[in-house]
Design goal:
It comes from Clostridium oceanicum. It holds the Pfam family DUF3792. The chain is built from four helices and no strands. The chain has 123 residues and is mainly α. It is globular and about 45 Å long.
Length: 123
């Protein structure tokens, strides 16, 4: 893979992480004023993760303009690893159950589909 392509993938992951931080900060502000249940919080975290992957993957695949599905899988996997590392550093435990596995599979599928979408979007 060319260095330019790797740079676009890194920029896509960086954009996805920044998008996640912004969305979670907005959710934290909402949570200070309104009591939100655990199910709603879990859904917000999942939606934020998936939207971040879509954003980063569409950006990168539009720039590279080929093999969007592969770019999407790479970005989804690397993004997921980064988020889990950040989660571990912040003090959360890494319990790996069926729900985590399903989230990872969903992230990969969404990354793959959004990569294909990004390649086919016109400027």
């Amino acid at each position: 893979m060319q260095k330019k392509y790797c740079n676009y993938i890194v920029y896509g992951i960086l954009r996805a992480v920044i998008f996640t931080v912004i969305m979670l900060l907005m959710f934290a502000v909402i949570m200070t004023f309104k009591n939100v249940g655990e199910k709603i919080s879990s859904m917000i975290y999942l939606l934020t993760t998936l939207l971040s992957i879509v954003y980063g993957t569409v950006y990168s695949s539009r720039k590279i303009n080929k093999k969007g599905w592969a770019i999407g899988i790479i970005i989804a996997l690397l993004y997921t690893v980064i988020i889990y590392i950040i989660s571990l550093v912040s003090g959360n435990t890494l319990t790996f159950g069926v729900d985590r596995l399903l989230r990872i599979v969903l992230a990969i599928v969404v990354g793959m589909l959004s990569g294909m979408l990004g390649v086919n979007l016109k400027e």
